[in-house]
Amino acid sequence: MTAKLVVEGLSHHYPDEYTGIDVHALDDISLEVEEGELVSVVGPSGCGKSTLLNILAGLLPYRVGTATVDGIRIEGPGPDRGVVFQEHAILPWRTVNKNIGHGLEIKRMPRDQIAKRVQEFVNLVGLAGFEDKYPHELSGGMKQRCAVARTLCADPVIMLMDEPFAAVDAQTRITLQEELNRIAMATKKTILFITHSVDEAAFLADRCFVFSARPGRLKAIVDINIPRGDRIWSDMNANADFLAARDEILKLVREEVSVATEE
Amino acid sequence: MQQRNDATGTQGPGLGWRINKLLQLDAMNLVILVIAVYIIWSVISALIDNPARYLPSPIAVAMSSVDMLYKGLLPSYFGDTLVRLIFGSAIGLILGIPFGLLLGINRTVADMFHPIMNFFQSVSGIAIFPIIVVWWGNSDKTIFAVILYTAFFPIAFNVLSGVREIPIRYISAARTLGASRYQIIKDVLFPGAMPHIATGSRLSIGFAWRAVIAGEMLAGRQGLGWMIFTGQDADNTAEVILGMVMIGVTWIILDHYLLRPMEADTIERWGLVQR
Ligand SMILES: Nc1ncnc2c1ncn2[C@@H]1O[C@H](COP(=O)(O)OP(=O)(O)OP(=O)(O)O)[C@@H](O)[C@H]1O
Ligand SMILES: [Mg+2]
């Protein structure tokens, strides 16, 4: 059985028309994500994580290497792959409710069913009471939670998440991480999760991909073999597997960050 | 259109409340302004020689309107002008908004059309009047064509620019949710261009209003423009001023009580413009 998501020899350059010097964002990335697996991606700022996500989302055309879902080359976006963008992209002219239900509306689900499902996800991300607010009336973290709920509500098979909890307060972040863990356990979704937080990467992932400084290469893969049911933040400080994985990722990331800042 | 209904929803103050507030606020200012204008106007009119020809007093203008009302000309002229404005600008907007949206979808097409649109929106309706008269003579058709032309380009140009300013990530987000081309237009491009649609509409209707008056003066047989034109011919300055006042007052009412509230109910509600 082949993996759900396969990337082979993927490289990407951004051309720069003004200076003529291309930015080499990704270099020869090869990785696989199994069906139902949650992988995290960490690496220094500017190493090409968002670039990889955009390619997988089908939003960025690529020439060198291949990226496939179920063996089919990614050529454009599709509802099988849900995306939470680094810069939240909820629509200013839609209320919280309407944003979260947008994916279902696009799929032409009946209104009453949409309303029911939307309510579930509004509660899940703690936006109850704000259903009819517009994004400009929300805080940064609330917008981000709205964006996460929108993607979850559309129920894609693969979720691509770009630092979705970065702008959220510590307490909410813990809740959302545990919730995402529960969703991963319950729904068997395939999830690629980009983060700057080593703790988050270790807590959520089955495997963690550590990227090198730009041009981004896959530097190492750290396995984290903790059963999903055991992943509760209050137990983590006593969990040797978690602590070992976290320290390993931290060490790998530190080496790269120092490379990136010495440049 | 569905978007607008959603936005007005049940939340927040309703349209009635808004209009009420506008009326209260304006009432005081308006009274003071009208009294001031009345006094200055009366004084100047009283000081000059031959005011009937150069600047009739407000009372004389009011008398002239009573006279015209009596003859039934004022309602009929006013009605003609309004109908022209409403038809001309409505059709201009109905054609211009989709045209701008469609051009805006494709960046290459948009870039190609941008200078052409810019060209036409700068050549005012008055400037194309002579050539239309050459084609169709002094007729209603000519007036209508000029109004349509005047209304079309500002709105189309504004919508085109509006679509191009929508952040790509909104379009990307809709695409990853599986939106079709039509759904992207309906859910992202149309509402996203709303601030420009609102300002474009106001520009279009404002220009159309001027074009109506100018058109009636140059090629008409009825309407407020025609009334001003014939008033001058007949040395009836009071009638000329009456026409001018009607034009200005109509615009203020239209802008303040129709166009502005429409803007407030959409783009301000969405936080797309600063109050
Ligand atoms: N649209 C673009 N055009 C040109 N260059 C780009 C573009 N997007 C990203 N880059 C460049 O590609 C490199 C990788 O960017 P990317 O956004 O993928 O990094 P990242 O790993 O997501 O960083 P961060 O952790 O800060 O979000 C950067 O050097 C950036 O300047
Ligand atoms: Mg990024």
SSE order and pairing:
The complex is a heterodimer of chains A (263) and B (275).
Chain A: E1 5-14, E2 23-33, E3 38-42, H1 49-57, E4 64-69, E5 72-73, E6 81-84, H2 96-100, H3 102-106, H4 111-124, H5 140-153, E7 158-162, H6 170-187, E8 190-194, H7 198-204, E9 207-211, E10 218-223, H8 233-236, H9 240-262
Parallel strand pairs in A: 3-8, 3-9, 6-7, 7-8
Antiparallel strand pairs in A: 1-2, 1-4, 4-5, 9-10
Chain B: H1 2-8, H2 15-47, H3 51-54, H4 58-71, H5 73-105, H6 107-122, H7 125-136, H8 140-164, H9 168-176, H10 181-192, H11 194-219, H12 224-233, H13 237-268
Helix pairs in contact in B: 4-13, 5-8, 5-11, 5-12, 6-8, 7-8, 7-11, 8-11, 9-10, 11-12, 11-13, 12-13
The complex binds adenosine-5'-triphosphate and magnesium ion.
Residues 14, 23, 25, 43, 45-51, 86, 214 of chain A line the site of adenosine-5'-triphosphate.
Describe this entry's structure for a reader.
- The complex is a heterodimer of chains A (263) and B (275).
- In chain A, α4 packs across α5 and α7 crosses α9.
- Chain A is globular.
- The model of chain A has no long low-confidence stretch (mean pLDDT 91).
- Chain A is built from nine helices and ten strands.
- Chain A has 263 residues and is of the alpha/beta class.
- Chain A is 38% helix and 22% strand.
- Chain A starts with a strand and ends with a helix.
- Chain B folds into two domains: 42 residues; 210 residues, MetI-like (MetI-like fold).
- Chain B contains 13 helices and no strands.
- In chain B, α7 packs across α8.
- With 275 residues, chain B is mainly alpha-helical.
- Chain B is 85% helix and 0% strand.
- At the A-B interface, β6 and α3 of A face α1, α9 and α10 of B.
- The site of adenosine-5'-triphosphate has 13 residues of chain A, from β2 and α1.
